[in-house]
Amino acid sequence: MSVIKVAILGFGTVGQGVYKTIQSHGEELTAVLGKKVEVAAVLIKNNQKEREISEEVLVTTNFGEILDLPQLDIVVEAIVDKEPTFTFLKKAIKHGCHIITANKEMFAHHGKELIELADENHVSIGFEATVAGGIPVIQTLRELLKINRVDQVQGILNGTSNFILTEMRVKKQSFAQSLLQAQLNGYAEADPTNDVEGYDAFYKTMILSRISFGEEPNWHAVEREGITSITSELIAAAEKFGLRFKHVASLTKAGNQIKASVKPVLVGQEHPFYHVEGVENAVNVHSDIVGRITLQGPGAGMFPTASAVIEDLVYVCQSHPAKRSYTGTPGGNIGQKNEDKKEYWLVQGLTKKYAAPSITWIDQAANEIFIIQTTRKEVDQLAIQQGGLVYYPILGEYETLLKDTALTALL
Questions:
Q1: CB–CB of 270/254 below 8 Å?
Q2: Pick from 99, 81, 90, 109: which is nearest to 203 by CA?
Q3: Nearest to 152 by CA among 23, 321, 328
Q4: Which CATH topology does 3-130 take?
Q5: Using CA atoms, how far apart are residues 61 and 271, in angstroms rounded to an integer?
């Protein structure tokens, strides 16, 4: 029986998960591919550390030794940072290897170039693990885009931020306490900036834009806001209205224009993200035929991410063209921006009456914390006039949970 030879670059959590899954699910892979899958090499950083790797596998710190193997079919990249991973993958493609990556930052920056290079060299690229761990969102979008026109994608794409927001609400903890718990659990790095400031979700959003629409928005025009401004007081106030904070990435396309954001929002019980808790991820896709579908599952971890990599291994072995895997279809009109559309907002920091006719006062949860209805333009203007104001949009339709308590007495 012929064999598919695989090299794994990096042997941390993801790399180990891929290695173990290839060993444990060898029969299933053979049944699907008609060939046995074998790990031929593993690239490591520290050759003094003991690892549970078969003696038959080349374990090396030198990527050149891997490319010198007599047979190499697939390179799985599970490292971090843009370099040297980008260089490694370019060399692997030119060597005639299919590649699979779990590196969202590198792929967000260099995915287009890798796709074009892979197309020139007649190999395929798998990148399911770059976006939402074990959730098959890339594969789902590929299937939808055969006929459907996707015009909106929203997602909770970072498990660390979602865990922190959940801990703050459930355990009545501060942001600092919840972040420390995330670090103790291994969900957050010592420097959590990428997660809590939205950079990780931003990179994933750009990858989703490329697969959904075939292009990205201007990176500098994307609204990116982290969760560090969310306090226990705000979370408690939101709970009084039946709302929960979620850190949501959003993509919409109207005509030729793509709008993107990564920011905290509020959702009610009817929203599909309301019950997405802890380190879970979720992606909600809207297309013109099927309507809305939501995928939810583990966004990180050894075996959820390994699952995405293994599915990509099957995908690339079935000779899918690289260029076709990274181009979307024209969007519809759901994302068409109406500057005069009124939305609901949770705002904090109102210190005086603001009686503009375009603002409707809905409820008050605590001192200086209100729900209002107005346009985005008006709330931006309000923030300029009311120094220190913070405000968060409420996704979907909001219905006050309190009985008819209009704020006439407060105005």
A1: no
A2: 109
A3: 328
A4: Rossmann fold (3.40.50)
A5: 48
Residue among 378, 371, 377 at smallest CA distance from 397: 371
| CB 273, CB 249: distance < 8 Å | no
Of the candidates 105, 149, 129, 111, the residue with the CA atom closest to the CA atom of residue 281 = 129
Helix (H) or strand (E) segment spanning residue 238? helix 232-240
Q: Quick one: CATH architecture of 137-300+321-326? A: 2-Layer Sandwich (3.30)
Asked about 91 being catalytic, the answer comes back as no
Q: What are the start-end ranges of the E strands in 146-279?
A: 150-156, 223-224, 244-254, 257-267
> pLDDT by residue (tens digit) across 171-230?
999 999 999 999 998 888 889 999 999 999 999 999 999 999 989 999 999 999 999 999
Catalytic residue among 204, 246, 253, 263: 204
- Which class for 251: exposed (0-12), middle (13-18), buried (19 or more C-beta within 10 A)? buried
Nearest Cα to Cα of residue 206 among 256, 135, 258 = 258
| For the chain, the helix, strand and coil percentages under 3-state DSSP, each to the nearest 5 | 35, 25, 40
Distance separating alpha carbons of residues 58 and 90, to the nearest angstrom? 21
- 143-184 confidence digits (pLDDT tens): 888 889 899 999 999 999 999 999 999 999 999 999 999 999
Residue 250 · residue 261 · CB < 8 Å: yes
Tell me the H-state helices in 121-174: 137-144, 159-170
Query: Where exactly does CATH 3.30.360.10 map onto the chain?
Result: 137-300+321-326
Q: How many CB atoms are closer than 10 A to CB 233?
A: 14
Q: Which contiguous run of DSSP H or E holds residue 58?
A: strand 58-60
Strands 257-267 and 223-224: parallel
Global pTM value: 0.88
